Amino acid sequence: MNTVIVPVDFSPTSLHAARYAAQLLVGHYGVTLVLYHSYSKPSEAEKALADLENLKEILMKDHIVKMEVLAHHEDDFVDGLERAARHRVADLVIMGITGKSALAQVFFGSNTLKMAETKACPVLIVPENASFEPIKNVMLTSDFKNTLNSTPSGPIKDFLDVFHPQLHIVNVDEDHFISLTENYEKEKQDLKQLFADYNPEFYFMRLYDVDEALNLFAETRNIDMMIVIKKDHSFLGKLFRTDRTKKLTYQSKLPILVMHE
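RE: above sequence
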């Protein structure tokens, strides 16, 4: 991992994400943290750069991290951020999300979720009530369907190689509780081989409310981060498109890393 972009509009939500990112990258000296801001009027350019430099100085007082600032004039926030991620060949974008009010969700929640829909690079969503914890335990959710072709093993391994956590692979399904079907066992073995270097542990949970099950598992296993693979036609692919499951990000204390198959 070489480049991480954190968009900031200087709201509490984005500043929280920036602080989390700085804490996350302490000790990873080969990674550059880019503080990014987009402004709507050319006259705002000078102030935008000054504010970014000030934020950089504040963060670097407590966190020794390689940082740069980047400010662009953009008409559309998500388009500008996606372009910056592609141009900088970013490995990760870290964004905040808030659930304090419906208005806040519209401005901060929707942009974060829209960016997670793009395929520019993985997006780490940091809820407003998530406090930083060293990444010791990571949960990878899987639907156990065509895992070899649908699991972005390269980006996942790149992330695991940086932080060296214990990997927990979790499936929530209402049908598999006592024993696994032959197909599920095959998918498990495929994933076990795919992530053999990381000694993955596997869990199968029989619960109807998927987001409740994942949050419960995270609490009982001291999970520090969840990885979700976004598929266009799977349940997890709908994770950020349905009102019911949006509470996973709006109410969770757990950072969620979104990757595309």
